[in-house]
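S1.2 Input.
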Amino acid sequence: MTTTTSTAVGQLAEKGSQLRPGVLGILVVGGLLGGLYFKTLSALGLDWYSDPDFSHGFLIPIMSGYFVWERWDRLKTQVVAPSLWGVPVLCLGLGMLVLGSLGAELYLQRSSLIVVLCGLVWVLLGRAFLRNLALPLAFLLFMIPLPSIILNTIAFPLQLFAAKVASICLFTLSIPVLREGNIIMLTGTTLEVADACSGIRSLQALLALGTVYAYFTQETFLGRWILVLLSIPIAIAANVIRVSGTGILAEYYGVEAAQGFYHTFEGWIVFVVAFVLLLGAGSILSRLMHHRLGTRDAGLPGAQAPAPHINPQST
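S1.3 Output.
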């Protein structure tokens, strides 16, 4: 009994001695990253808290952590193979942080964290770990707001498109309308499709939602990518519906109705409409991909036709 107990204690001590350097290394690397990116992450969290357009950023690290947890059994059996090939990636990320700090470019500073994490995983754990953690790491990009130069470049064409299509919808509903650029003139009021109404700010959040929805509902890699890309036209279509709805309310119930409760909760309305469209697109895509896989499997050379049913009474 004493021998068995001492053997068990020895095994536990041996395992503890093996785990201690790994845990210590994780704490050291985590501490260094926390000190290096403390100001950057603090400013990022403040943006999530103060700007409703970026509030989805709080959920992105949680969802990324879930993706890691889902792969945990696979990661535990993965062989640790440190590689110096990750050093250039790590240096690239640190260079991005330095350049972003010198040029006051927030997006470059914040996105450098993801590059640094990729380099650390490659250097300390190996390429196989990086491949398995590709989705959790890439998904973190959705937590970083796009730079203003990109938002401003894309926003105005989307404003014009939303105003044009909404004007067509209103005219189809027999509502007198005249459009000049992003200005929609009705009989009793004038509506402006401003930057906030372009839909670009909600596009990033909907892309993140589309990625999660595609991951859980689509069985094939192609189907997941198609559904993620479909999130872009779905977001644009939902924004057009919102602008058209604003015009209808302003025409029949006055501009006060269009700028009251509806205008306050229009962001939620856009997401509800977009999510319904996303659900419909995902359902249709799942059926199409399932039919495509069934057709392909049926056409394989090794596939055999089902045996004919023989009625026992006929024999």
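S1.4 Remarks. Residues 1-21, 309-315 have pLDDT under 50 and may be disordered.
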